[in-house]
Amino acid sequence: MRYGSILNEPEKESKSRVSRKSYALDSLAVMPGICILSIDTELAWGMNAADLPRFCKVLDEEPEIIRRLIRLLDTYRIPATWAVVGRLLTAPADRRHGGRTPGRWYHAPDLLEWITGARIRHEIGTHTFGHIYAHDASTTRTVWKRDLEAACRTGRQHGIIVRSIVYPRNQVAYVDTLDDFGIVAYRGVERNWYGNRRGAVHILDRAVGTPAPTYDLNALREGDRLVNLPASQFLLGDNGIRKLIPPSSRIRQARLGLDRAADRGELYHLWFHPFNLGTGDRMFHTLEHVLRDISERRDRGELLVMTMAETADLILEGANGFVPAERRQ
Ligand SMILES: [Zn+2]
Q1: Can you list the domains of the chain with their CATH numbers?
Q2: Residue 315 CA to ligand 1 centre (angstroms)
Q3: Biggest alpha carbon–alpha carbon distance for the chain
Q4: Alpha carbon of 52 to ligand 1 centroid (Å)
Q5: How many C-beta atoms lie closer than 10 Å to residue 326's C-beta?
Q6: CA pair distance 309, 150, nearest whole angstrom
Q7: DSSP of 184-213, one letter per residue?
Q8: Cα dihedral sign for 297, 195, 134, 86?
Q9: What is the CA(263)–ligand 1 centre distance, in A?
């Protein structure tokens, strides 16, 4: 296989990766919090045709944004779960055969090399094969399973074993099918005070910088083989009206969420798309601030920074490490 099994490369830096053998969680009176970063990687697959003209510049620059992001994650030794749209990894189809143009907005053949070439070991999960919406009437169970099959097959062709999924538009459904594909973790919907209403109230929440929700690790398991790792915070971009929200609000929201995750031993889960970082420096500086905060807490032993699949393994393999709260001192 081209990349080997990237989940099992021993030579990769693994400082921030928790080895269940080396990290004796059951010896801790209080478990540290867990921090997850997931990155929805889709280029233009999630965009409506009408929105494309507004995003031309950022789409053209997205390969460079992704490479810059990988370097930043290396600097702070933060592993991420890259939820990749499967079709990004396929060869562009001819327009006459339904291929979308320009090809560079829909295909990124070098993407995996960039991610696996990083010093830190990342996870590559799926964001479905065709960025399909599970709540659409046209996405029947059969359509859904066929898509996931294609996503996992494409992964295998590149030496990747898909173990985590991020649902496009966070439309969670068909959760009972995930185990058939070896998927152990999905990113559930953020459980916030405003019930995920979109628009003004969401922007207001980000402007005020209310604490990002965090989650009790004991409540995330769904049966014996699946874990729901809900989102805590979407790192809002700064395009359009969002520009009015100062970076400090996003940073504050993260800091308060991280505080609580560390204090209570809970999960804090940050996510965004590479294109949310935009083409300038402002969002990168905001993200760097948050990553520095995360890495300092990790270095102080307050937080574990893990991928989605690692977190699921830790929770599911309870007997080997994870200690449910009721059994802790
Ligand atoms: Zn998406």
Answers
A1: 6-13+27-327 (3.20.20.370)
A2: 26
A3: 65
A4: 14
A5: 6
A6: 20
A7: -EE-PPP--TTTT--THHHHHHHHHTPPPP
A8: negative
A9: 32
Q: Tens digits of per-residue pLDDT, 63-87?
A: 999 999 999 999 999 999 999 999 9
- C-alpha of residue 64 to centroid of ligand 1, in Å: 19
Beta strands 33-41 and 81-84, pairing class: parallel
90 CA → ligand 1 middle, Å: 17
Residue 148 tokens read as: 């996931």
For residue 18, pLDDT over 90 is answered with no
CA 54 / ligand 1 centre spacing (Å): 17
CA of 318 to the centre of ligand 1 (A): 31
Q: 129-164 pLDDT, tens per residue?
A: 999 999 999 999 999 999 999 999 999 999 999 999
Percent of the chain with pLDDT over 70: 81
Residue 292 C-alpha to ligand 1 middle, in angstroms?
26
Tokens describing residue 121: 């070991």
State the distance from the centre of ligand 1 to the C-alpha of 327, rounded, in angstroms: 38
The CA 43 to ligand 1 mean position distance, Å, reads 9
Residues in the chain: 329
Ligand 1 mean position, distance from CA 249 (Å): 24
**What does the pLDDT look like over 168-188, one tens digit per residue?**
999 999 999 999 999 999 999
pLDDT tens digits for 232-242?
A: 999 988 777 77
Q: So what's the pLDDT on residue 31?
A: 75
Residue 92 makes CB contacts below 8 A (sequence gap 6+) with 99, 103, 106, 107
84: CA distance to ligand 1 center in Å? 9
Please state the pTM of the whole predicted model. Answer: 0.86
